Amino acid sequence: MTTPRTVLVTGGNRGIGRAIAAEFVAQGHRVAVTARSGEGPEGALTVRADVTDGASLDAAFAEVEKQLGPVEVVVANAGITRDTLVLRMSDEDFDTVVDTNLGGAFRVVKRASKGMLKARFGRVILISSIVGLYGSPGQVNYASSKAALVGMARSLTRELGARGITANVVAPGFIESDMTAELPADQQAEYIKTVPAGRPGRAEEVAKAVAWLASDDAGYISGAVIPVDGGLGMGH
Known about the structure:
By secondary structure, the chain is of the alpha/beta class. It has eight helices and seven strands. It has a single domain, classed as Rossmann fold, CATH 3.40.50. The protein is globular and about 50 Å long. The model has no long low-confidence stretch (mean pLDDT 95). Pfam families: adh_short_C2 (PF13561). Belongs to the short-chain dehydrogenases/reductases (SDR) family.
């Protein structure tokens, strides 16, 4: 039985973030999501925030703390892509993706860690990607931002581990989502051929792994990268 916690999921209005928030709600936790637009799943508190803006995050945290209590579990999920080959990638394409995916995770974790240090308990879960460790043409910006989350989690583990705080990374592979649905069918089929499991993953399968890392059972796991990729990235 897992202790009910106050959970905050960034980018919890769609896709994997929404599935993660819904799983925490189903397990009886007090759940909030940040979103720039749209709403989180039923049963979750939605607060407006942009992870590139520290002041908006601060206000969102204050709202969550007021309504649900100090954040004990933070899931840094918000992310964007701006895919293009490196020779065509502008400085802005690179900086915007890194500032959202990596800078956003940093801002969220920094704000959450205050309450976690006080409580001497915390779960930090960073949502990376198979691409961060495996690489992908046209995604130098995205892959760099996602790979960097591993270094962040491991540094947090060394810095905060003695205070009852864990920091882990979940690296999803080819997951059915709005983004993958837009790919041509033949391209989807090509991707699936490379996955040993022979199928795309479901957002709910990522959510289950995240919820387990946040549970009491995972208290001695920190600095780990948990792949949810059907075997695609073995060894990476």
